[in-house]
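Hi! If you just cloned this repository, the fastest way to understand the data is to look at a raw example. We've pasted two of them here, unedited. The first protein comes first, obviously.
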Amino acid sequence: MGSKKIEDALFEARPYVEYYDRLEELVRKLWKKAESEEAFIQMLEGELQRSEEPFKTDIRIFLQKFTALEG
């Protein structure tokens, strides 16, 4: 699993998210736990369900950016 994709998605999401530091911390924590990219996405989607707005929107933006990137 390439962390460059994580870095790129965080970079692209940064201008649009309200709680960047919180998002970055969550993303890095889940990325370390994930055994695959699919598992990472599933964990993020789980966090999306549990989160409150506006952080929920931040996660959604990151997910959009992450899934749009290749490899």
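Ok, and the second one:
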Amino acid sequence: MRKQIKKYLLIFCGLLSIALGIIGAVLPILPTTPFLILALTCFAKSSPRFHKMLLNNRWFGSALQQWEEERTITRTSKLKAMALVVLTFSISIGVLYGRLQLQLGLLVLGSILLAFMWHLKESQTITAPIADK
């Protein structure tokens, strides 16, 4: 009985994480990638079918596969995500002109998010050796 409750709770959390990730693709305050990674983790422990669906998704499946196998992201993805965080948080802080506490809160939240992203491991790309002539 407890295993069934845990399973359904993890499936619910995974589906909720996907929904928040999709919303995060549109709204600047919610980051998409962490929610999708959380969903992947929830489904790995509860639903092989949903887990496989995430890994085979055409838009973000390859990035999630890389995360699951190596716990890394590509440098390009990392830099794009960090640039997006800076851009969206800057816009949000600008929109809240005159509300110093909210602006400072967003600045702190954005800084924490950037620090977390900065410390994510990057995948090592293997380059072919240059042949001697």
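That's it. A detail worth noticing about the second one: The two ends are 69 Å apart (CA to CA).
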